[in-house]
UniProtKB/TrEMBL annotation:
CDD domains: cupin_bxe_c0505. It comes from the Bacteria. SUPFAM superfamilies: RmlC-like cupins. InterPro entries: Cupin_2, RmlC-like_jellyroll, RmlC_Cupin_sf. It comes from Pseudoprimorskyibacter insulae. Coiled coil: none annotated. This is Cupin type-2 domain-containing protein. The lineage of its organism: Bacteria, Pseudomonadati, Pseudomonadota, Alphaproteobacteria, Rhodobacterales.
Length: 146
């Protein structure tokens, strides 16, 4: 029997993954790029996501160090999620079973967990945003796929 009022439902419970997160904002002019990251030919600016999510997620801006090139080493990561969004310039990645792909400003790639890949080359002005889960993860050097 209709009551004439709005239907009220209970919101589903939030999964534990989404609990215990802190509010955070990172402004470009407040951030500092550091060369202490996974790759010497890149600089990294942390966005505060690792701290706000207790390490469940990480996000940073990565930019090329002008004049430095990638050695193109094959590798893989022990993580659950890795997404890259190019904000400036271009970068070429090669993925096992997927071939070489040039990512330009506005390009986005989801790299499945454990996929063998390598950064082949990039423009001197390249910048991208990388989001991972978890924030900290192991990286393994790999042999080139056949």
């Amino acid at each position: 029997m209709a009551t004439g009022g709005p239907l009220q439902t209970k919101a589903p419970a939030m999964p534990k993954l989404w609990k215990n997160q802190a509010f955070t904002i990172a402004h470009a002019d407040d951030g500092k790029f550091e060369g202490q990251g996974l790759r010497a030919f890149f600089e990294y600016r942390q966005l505060g996501i690792a701290e706000a999510t207790q390490g469940k997620f990480g996000a940073h801006v990565i930019r090329a160090v002008p004049g430095m090139e990638s050695p193109g080493a094959w590798h893989s990561h022990d993580l659950d999620f890795q997404m890259v969004y190019v904000t400036k310039g271009w970068v070429v990645f090669e993925y096992e079973g997927q071939g070489e792909h040039i990512l330009r400003e506005g390009s986005c790639v989801l790299q499945p967990p454990g996929i063998l890949h390598r950064e082949c080359r990039h423009s001197d002005d390249m910048e991208l945003i990388e989001i991972t889960s978890p924030a900290e993860f192991a990286t393994q050097a790999e042999e080139a796929p056949e």
